Amino acid sequence: MSRKHAELEREFIEDLEPRTGRSLAVWMSLIDGTRLTDRNAVIDWLRPQGLTFAHASWLERIHHNGGRPIYGETSERLPPLAPQPPATSAPRPTPTAQPAPTHATTAPLPPAAPTPAPPRPISVSPTPPVPAASASVAELMARGKGLRPLAHMLLREIAQALPGLVTTPAGDLISLQRPREFGVLLVGPRELRLGLDLGNWPAEGPLTRARIPGTKPRITHITVINDARQVGASLIELVQRADAMTNTAE
What we know:
The protein has two domains: about 5-75, no CATH class; about 135-245. The N and C termini lie far apart (about 70 Å). The protein has seven helices and six strands, in the order ααααααββββββα. It is of the alpha+beta class. The chain is elongated, with a radius of gyration of 27 Å. The chain has a six-stranded antiparallel beta sheet.
């Protein structure tokens, strides 16, 4: 066993809860709750949760190892996340009647160890549906593949900030309206491109003054999103500003 790998793994596990707010045991239970069996699918699910690819891959490897550290010593390994099924064995033949012995010839078998109680499951809420989503919008969202959960998260946050949001397909784009179009979303497997109607607003921070092909001239700025940490208060404020400029200008 490489001592360097063991030390890196120990540091990763110790820093997991301070960095993400969730311990290793919680992450293992969350992955269990997804019911995903493909290892790449697990990594794709973890990435939008604010984890780098390396950290998501490490969590998936530990989960694939039964929730136990890969390089840790036996004493450092976590208990099983769920009780293991008992090993099956051939049924014992029914013994024939024998005279009762005057004293025991064999020592009695020790009592079976009690089955450990499973940990309290952590519920994983399904991703809420996108507001006013149609089959065509769902197909556009599916193009995101591993970033599809991030696209759902982005639209959910926008809908919470702007009640009455309507999403409709517009070619390869998802149009954001309330009721007039103030933004568009282009969903891809590597990144999300959010276009906004911001007029003469300066192109600074995450914003670039550019157009997404197929958009109307009023969509003046875009921002590229590929990490859940980018969907924060500053981004939602820009979305609200674009809505205000479009739908309260008259």
